[in-house]
Records
---
Amino acid sequence: MEGGVDSRAVRGFFDEMYGDAVTPDARLVLWSARDKRSRWTSTLSDAVAQVEAQAAASDPYFGVCLQQYAAAREERATRTGDAAPSMDFVRGYASTTAVMPGLWLDLDLAGPAHEKRGLPKTSDDADRILSKLPLSPTWVINTGGGLHVYWLFREPWTLEVQEERDRAAACIRGWQTLAIDYAADMGFSMDATHDLSRVLRPVGTTNHKYGELVVFQVTDGARYNPSDFEGFAVEVTLP
């Protein structure tokens, strides 16, 4: 491992999550905590290279859902009035989401880097919350300051029309609402992170707040269909 990144682990993580879904039309957005800039990558090799370039000096993040670059650029132009907008500070939009690989939770644990009160104190507390959910996660990832939890689909869900994006948004919001309600019943608080342009930490990178590598904690391999979560969906209409 060099520069605070395990490149092989990063590549394996992205391979398992996206397969061949990353393309020039469905891009993987990398974001740096240091300069707040986005890098729109069209291949997994480019994505890993961007993570490597950022990892030594910053905490790199990735957009869980792939984004339509052309549509996002058009949306940015509409919002800014600039006919040729820069995409350097754009992570994408709900309305330009191209592919959803699965559902996720960002479950912070109490510690010096988290000021919010009521967070779960230990991994055991987090496990109690996760055990209440009706479907077991594909991956639980230890980020150093908490857990990122994924329920991956058997195949990444390609969102070709707005109705599918609304369905995807409803599934992630409903699933997270269920988890947040279970956490509240146990006396814990949890942030909602259901936006389709959400960025999280990739496995194989270093959390510089704690000096710890982001690693898999649980990989039980369960995979799902989007329909498995639609019974928990909360109706959403995206702008």
---
Amino acid sequence: VEQREEKLQGFRKRARLLNGAGAMVTGWIIFFPQPYEAAFWAAFALPPVCILASRFSGGFIRIQEEKGSAYPSVFWGLFFPSLGIAIRALSDFSIFAYENAFKGALVIAIFYLFLLLVRSKEFLFQSAKEYGIAIFFGILGFSYGHGVVVTLNCLYDKSPATVYASRVTDKRVSSGKSTTYYLTLTPWGPEKDTSDVAVDKELYHRVHNGEDVRILFQRGRLEIPWFMVTD
């Protein structure tokens, strides 16, 4: 009993370390992602590290956070970076066509769930609750996969940019848990309709209705076309 308790204490320390790392990495990638690549790779690596730490702990480290359980959990070390990498990708990159992004995200989500669920002692699928939890992790895995695929596609894209011109016809700000700035642009290049495009705060305040902006359109490293708006 004493040896088991000593071993459990060691796994509790590891779980606390991974959860703490998850919180710090998420704060890093969301609020101050500098250097950008380092923040991305840290957020990318931590969720699978947490899953593998649980799988190779002999049942001592759990994925789920259960109130009153004697076993430590790495849920937050898994959850926070998965969500953070998805939020960063949505904030930083404007995707023109999502088909390949969704395909890539689905592949990563399946692998994510495979690591999490296959031959797991924690997920036995004996109740509706466990199926619901599996669906939750599937959605989380898809969000993580989407963030990873979009970031890899755009961050490492070396294709030459095609430059298009567009005109600002309107501006608006969406406020809620976060503030998003939109420019309404006339049709440009492959975009045949007037569209609202999210831009950073600085660009939003620099340009005005009736002014022209440039669209830098690129193929994408993973064949996911994307674009940037500049003045």
